[in-house]
Amino acid sequence: xxxxxxxxxxxxxxxxxxxxxxxxxxxxxxxxxxxxxxxxxxxxxxxxxxxxxxxxxxxxxxxxxxxxxxxxxxxxxxxxxxxxxxxxxxxxxxxxxxxxxxxxxxxxxxxxxxxxxxxxxxxxxxxxxxxxxxxxxxxxxxxxxxxxxxxxxxxxxxxxxxxxxxxxxxxxxxxxxxxxxxxxxxxxxxxxxxxxxxxxxxxxxxxxxxxx
Length: 212
Description:
The protein has 212 residues and is mostly helical. The chain is built from 7 helices and no strands.
């Protein structure tokens, strides 16, 4: 009896083994490999002025220093300006390059991807564009002046390249952001109460003139 029971157990194990082979196997997950962060997009390749500025004030990749930090931040600002231009012009069809750029409080008013989404969906205003570009321009100008002072060079050429990048991005935002226009003279639609006058005050007479 015990022998028969052992044979049945062995037969069940063999049957389960054949059944397991019939199902497709999942690929190994390779948890032993370290997670790799996505590479920072190099949108500066779409701008000749940005590339010229980086060639003029390159990052040395040496020991950490204040000068090296300034150069890296300037490179980040140029990357943000060109990626912002790319995402807005392409309407985010190929994905948002700005999503992979780090947030920096010294020159960012908000995460760029948030602004791109509002820009493409009619949630941005002209004032929003002015504030964002003004902060990038002021911070970038400050960095160029500091780097040039330490190098002992004239910053005029660097300023020229930087202003060109600023101008290109500002123009792209102005023409591609679907900003809703102000409706100050008429209601927005048939269901908008607009500037209707309540019935209780519609028939009021004008104030009588007082005699002095």
